[in-house]
Amino acid sequence: MTYPTETLTHSDIWATTADLTTLRHKLLDLFSQRAYQEGDFVLASGLRSSYYVNKMQVTLHPQGALAVGRLLFPLLPVDTQAVAGLTMGADPMVTAVSIVSVYENRPIPALIIRKEAKGYGTKAYIEGPTLPEGAKVVVLEDVVTTGQSALKAVERLKDAGYTVNQIISLVDRQQGGAELYQSAGLKFETLFSIQEVQERYRQLANS
């Protein structure tokens, strides 16, 4: 779906609503209308699927990005010292949460984790502010399938001396990721199950 470039009226700008329940419904609509597609796809995990969630259609959408930040921020434990995720799917997510955290008077920095070490300069795996040893970091993930991507981020952060106990995703495809995290001793939360997205997709298609 092409993004409309016309100027929105104030009533069209839903991402600033104070009601987080309404905000969640609007974000679900955005996933269902813009990100969810049916067809024949090969996923990053190598699995074939009859559907695909093009999450960047939401996390790089102006209202979608703000909604993601506002809905994920309250899920962070009060002692969270940073949010982090594997590039590039999590990049807009950690940025959105970090920006929202300033408006909530609880600034939380964002970390971006490279898939391969940078080939020059510091040759680092992790980009962003350097945190104290043992700092508590929450990993953010866009869409969880097998769970391997977020687990790789967890491993990189632990190798850097940080503490990671939790992963939060936007959508859980429910194909083993949650079980993998549980076996690794990690708490897992998701904003939406894939069933919610699919149900809303069909409701909108039939309306």
UniProtKB/TrEMBL annotation:
Pathway in which this enzyme or protein is active: Pyrimidine metabolism; UMP biosynthesis via de novo pathway; UMP from orotate: step 1/2
Residues at which 5-phospho-alpha-D-ribose 1-diphosphate binds: 114-115, 118, 141-149
Binding positions (orotate): 145, 173
Cofactor list: Mg(2+)
Record InterPro entries: OPRT, Or_phspho_trans_dom, PRTase-like, PRTase_dom
Location of the Phosphoribosyltransferase domain: 127-180
Main EC class the enzyme belongs to: transferase
Positions of transmembrane segments: none
Top-level taxonomic group: Bacteria
Reactions accelerated catalytically: orotidine 5'-phosphate + diphosphate = orotate + 5-phospho-alpha-D-ribose 1-diphosphate
Any GO BP annotation: pyrimidine nucleobase biosynthetic process
An example molecular function term from Gene Ontology annotations: orotate phosphoribosyltransferase activity
Presence of the UniProt keyword Transferase in the record: yes
Classification via CDD domains: PRTases_typeI
Keywords in alphabetical order: Glycosyltransferase, Magnesium, Pyrimidine biosynthesis, Transferase
EC number per UniProt: 2.4.2.10
Family, per entry: Belongs to the purine/pyrimidine phosphoribosyltransferase family. PyrE subfamily.
Subunit and partners: Homodimer.
Function: Catalyzes the transfer of a ribosyl phosphate group from 5-phosphoribose 1-diphosphate to orotate, leading to the formation of orotidine monophosphate (OMP).
Protein name: Orotate phosphoribosyltransferase
Lineage: Bacteria, Bacillati, Cyanobacteriota, Cyanophyceae, Nostocales
